[in-house]
Amino acid sequence: MRILIADDNDRIRNAIKAILSKEDGLEVCGEAAHGREALERVRQLLPDVVLLDIHMPESDGFQVARQLRLEFPELKILIMSQGDAAMILPTALQTGADGYLDKAYLGTELAQKLMQLLDPSATASSISRAEHCT
What we know:
Layout: E1 2-6, H1 10-21, E2 27-32, H2 35-45, E3 49-53, H3 61-71, E4 76-81, H4 85-94, E5 99-102, H5 110-118
Parallel strand pairs: 1-2, 1-3, 3-4, 4-5
């Protein structure tokens, strides 16, 4: 699975890369530091999954998710942030994202959650409350 990470915080991007680099079958194919760059990199690299921070310059994660959904209907999109998932998740889903990941809970479960996202037999109940993926 090829993953693009879009977050304006290079420490977050590096932490996610470090987590995913330990997992077989997961490859970080690219990074973006702002929304416009995320769109350009997805168009260029054609990843399987995009991890999108909500708060980025030059188009926030919600705007990018909307555009990506129009251009790449099969692309898996996860919105990332720290905050009240009950408030963020509905908006994320309305933008076309496939779910929400709370950055506070990324840890070593990130790879598992990504695999569940791509597994059509995974259900919302099989995913812990902390990650709020759908």
